[in-house]
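>> received
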Amino acid sequence: MSENFNAPGLVGKNVKDTGRIVSFLIDPSGQTKEALVENGNGQLVRYPVSLLKVGRDEVSVVSDLDKKIETISEQLPTMRKKKKILDKLAESKVIPSGIHESISREFDKTLKDLKNEAQIILEDADKQVKVQDEQLKTLQLARAYLEIEHGIGTVKDEVYQISVMSILREVKNAQQTKLSLLKTKDKVAEALQEEKEDEPKKETKPEPLEETKEEDAQASEAKSEPAAQPKEGRQALPVRVTEG
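>> returned
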């Protein structure tokens, strides 16, 4: 429910795929708690005002699950940001450690509760996706049977057309439900994703090429060997030849 919720202005408004708002119900303190909606069968149904989504042109009723997902998607990132700011305040000595620990415990508890609720929603969505997969498989088997019997002439064309339309309608419903569940999973999983802080990158020196390595090794060996002494010029000794 939006903050600018105006209950009196919504009386008589149509609610998408639901009916028409007839009135609202209040609690003993005078707070508006529920909307009274007349559905297509003329029945009056009560909806918590927290589940009403008021747009520019229409009013709609969101499911309790959608409301939980919306809350988790909004609160998880907000709580993470608050926690980071709180930690920075403590590091900068703006607030004493006792205050930091006290508030941090509350933040951690809220984060844990939100994550647990998100995990429950994910597990439930997984189960519901499997249910829809089984439903689609059943409908495909039914379609196969119908096509075979129609093909051999045991099911008349008129009956076949009506039956096929019913099966296709249910296939569409199952596919839409499954798609909605998968979107729910993606939205919750995105909210659960931890925000990674940028880590300082370590400077790495590029590896020298193989040729450079060999040259360096040769230079190193050359340095380790004692320098060759320069050869002094030798004078030729005179050789006297005597006749015997």
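>> The CA atoms of residues 24 and 197 lie 47 Å apart.
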